[in-house]
Amino acid sequence: MPTSYNGWSAGEGWSVAGGQLEKLIVAGEPFAPGVRAGDVHDVLEYVANQIHLRVQPVTFGHSADDWGYSYRANVNNPSQLSCHASATAIDYNAVSHPNGKSGTWTPAQKAEILKILAEVNNVVVCLWGYDEMHFEIRGTAAAVATAATRVRAAGGSASGVQVSAKYPIIGRIADTYRRVGPAVLGVPLGPEVPTLDPVGRWQNFEFGRIYFHPSVDGGNAHALQGEIEQCFKRLGCEPVVGWPTTDESVPFYGSTGRYNHFTGGWSIYWTPEVGRAFEVHGRIRDKWAELGWERSALGYPISGEVEQADGKIIQRFQHGGVVWDGVSAKVIE
Question: What is the Cα–Cα distance from 25 to 201, expressed in whole angstroms?
Answer without folding.
Answer: 22
